[in-house]
Amino acid sequence: MLIWLKNKGINIVISQTWRTREEQDALYAQGRTRSGNIVTNTRYPYSLHCWGVAFDIAVIVNNKANWSAKYYDIVGPLGESLGLEWGGRWKSFVDRPHFQLPGFTVSDLIKKYAHPESFKKSWKQSFEEEKNMAGFEGLATVVYEGKTLSAGILEGKTYVELRTLAELLGLKVIWDNNTKTVILSK
């Protein structure tokens, strides 16, 4: 989706993917028991983010995230044309930066896997679909202290999942939804 949109002159970044219990609980507390606006109506594990099948984006304008609806109303239908479900179509709690894979419901996932960690263990580490992506140059491996992570090379850059790498390095990963910032700490 990133390259496809870039080819249409729209730059985006993925700002949120899989959420831990702590991250989802912190987002739920925002606007309730913590300062800030309410940004979610769901507790852990009732968000598809907790199951790894939803993601949020940020549109980048002049090298900064821009949250203006006009950009998301362009990007949303493009994501839908790729088969994604878009939160901009929701009737209540419209969530324009949100996309999710079709066909998943939290109730079905809970019934089959009980909790997100069991579902995550069922994932296969495969780049088969990505091999057909424009700009995809192949698979790579990142090794740290004898531990191997799968990676992919896209337009000359090596990509690895940030949370997996950070945890391997012994870092704590926190997502600040207010500023759309990943905070790494020891």
Folded structure, characterized:
The chain contains six helices and ten strands, in the order αβαββαββααβββαββ. It is α+β, with helices and mostly antiparallel strands and 186 residues long. The strands form three sheets. Strands 1, 2, 3, 4 and 5 form a five-stranded antiparallel sheet that branches.
Q: Biggest β-sheet: count, sense, barrel? A: 5 strands, antiparallel
- Strand percentage: 25-35%
- The topology string of helices and strands comes to HEHEEHEEHHEEEHEE
**Which value, in Å, is the CA radius of gyration?**
17 Å
Which second-level CATH architecture of the domain at 1-123 applies?
Answer: 2-Layer Sandwich
Cα shape: globular
The structural class is: alpha+beta
Which runs of at least 5 residues are low in confidence (pLDDT < 50)? none
Number of helices: 6
Number of strands: 10
The percentage helix is 25-40%
Question: How many angstroms does the end-to-end distance come to?
Answer: 33 Å
CATH class type of the domain at 1-123? Alpha Beta
Indicate the CATH topology of the domain at 1-123: Muramoyl-pentapeptide Carboxypeptidase, domain 2
Mean pLDDT across every amino acid position:
86
How do the helices and strands line up, and which of them pair or pack?
Blueprint: H1 2-7, E1 12-16, H2 21-29, E2 54-61, E3 64-66, H3 69-81, E4 85-86, E5 98-100, H4 106-113, H5 116-121, E6 136-144, E7 147-154, E8 157-159, H6 162-168, E9 172-176, E10 181-185
Antiparallel strand pairs: 1-2, 2-3, 2-5, 4-5, 6-7, 7-8, 9-10
Task: Name the descriptors.
26% helix, 5-stranded antiparallel β-sheet, Muramoyl-pentapeptide Carboxypeptidase, domain 2, 186 residues, alpha+beta, 3-stranded antiparallel β-sheet
